[in-house]
Amino acid sequence: MKKVLLYSILLFVGLALSQALPSLLGGAHDGFAFVVRVLTMTGLAFIMIHVGFEFHIDKSRLGSYGWDYVVAFTAASFPWILVTGYFVLVMLPQGLWGNADAWKETLLAGRFAAPTSAGVLFSMLAAAGLGATWLFRKARVLAIFDDLDTVLLMIPLKMMMVGLAWQLGFIAVIMAVQLAVAYVWLHRVRMPVTWGWVLGYAGAIVAVSEILYAGSKVIDPSVPIHIEVLLPAFVIGCLARPRGSAPGADIAAVEHALHHVLERPGEQRAATVISAAFMVLVGLSMPAIFSGPDAQHPAPDLPSLHAAAPGAAVDDPTIHGGKPEDRYVRTITASQPNLGWGMIAVHVLLVTLLSNLGKMFPAFCYRREAHWRHRLALAIGMWPRGEVGAGVLVLSLSYGIGGPVVTVAMLSLALNLALTGVFILMVRRLLHGIPEGAAS
């Protein structure tokens, strides 16, 4: 558990720096933000490639993966629905309850509560010594589907903000192709899998993503193409077969060959160092909460320190008509009443509670596979949020959505991120003394 404590401290360090550095760096902050974003995406890609190494599909039981996707869909959708409803029905004036624009904007702002931070979750569970458990195997599937669902649903949400755009359809096609490639060529491509090579793969994925984004801005700066690194990195890991494995080896032999490489002391040390650095970077990915002349209304042009969320590079929203100074005016930004920090704190606690309550559906599933304490631990294990949710919030800011709603969302995300170590300790305590396969 020392590693969990270390990772938790590093998260706190990153969180603190994310709030202090914008004012300390001044004009140099934009360049620093870019470096942080690239490094964070590289760390996430490294972790997700390793997750892909461990991912196996029993193609004779595809129906079970369909059910896993349904469970993951609820884990991403229920928090979103609960938080969005809270923002509209509790935090906005009653006159906006039937306003379509208010719902559209809060649907985007509330999406921060949906995605589990796969990189943080997997690093923390492995640090807690739970990498070989049923919970880790199931959380691996659910968290990947959870984040995939978040990326997919961000496409129609972006369309609501900027209108129909061919770029968003192109992103959906690319995602479908990647999934098909991973399924057809699962662990069939012989390649080096040592940490140096994996870090190189991660860097290449980030570079391609950034080049594609920059090139698409030349074509149409209003809706750039941004391929999130989480999915292509996972696919690379799914394709990999260690060079030492026989060409006709079955999946068990491939898994054994992978473990033979990944369990070497040097590989373990490298993975620990990169995961530790990733924790700091995730904390740094939090948008600045206290900024501008009115800290309760965050400025929409905050530098983007986030890493892996839909819109990891903030899209420039196209708002037709109006004056330039009205470019970022949105319904909920202009209509929210000012709130004192005491009331903000109450809202933060309630939103955090609702967002985690929405993740609890997996606790009621898999009754034939695991004891109720394992299932409850699985649901709690889905609570950690991080770089993905932070990116959704920065995207919301780029579209002019602000005010107390976004302040509450940011503080809730920060609180949830800070509590990640506590969540993992709860998971470990629930699993203690209950053997694997003890269904109940």
Structure keywords:
440 residues; mainly alpha; two-stranded parallel sheet; 17 helices; single chain; Na+/H+ antiporter like fold; globular
CATH top level? Mainly Alpha
Distance between the termini: 28 Å
Largest sheet: 2 strands, parallel
**In terms of per-residue confidence, which ranges show pLDDT below 50 for 5 or more consecutive residues?**
292-329
Give the SSE string: HHHHHHHEHHEHHHHHHHH
Supply the helix-strand structural class: mainly alpha
Q: In the CATH hierarchy, what is the architecture at level 2?
A: Up-down Bundle
Mean pLDDT: 80
Cross-sheet strand order for the largest sheet: 1-2
Discrete helix count: 17
Strand content: under 5%
Q: What value does the Rg take, in angstroms?
A: 21 Å
| Number of distinct beta strands | 2
**CATH fold name, please?**
Na+/H+ antiporter like fold
Task: Give the total of domains.
Answer: 1
The coarse overall form would be globular
The residue fraction in helices comes out at: 55-70%
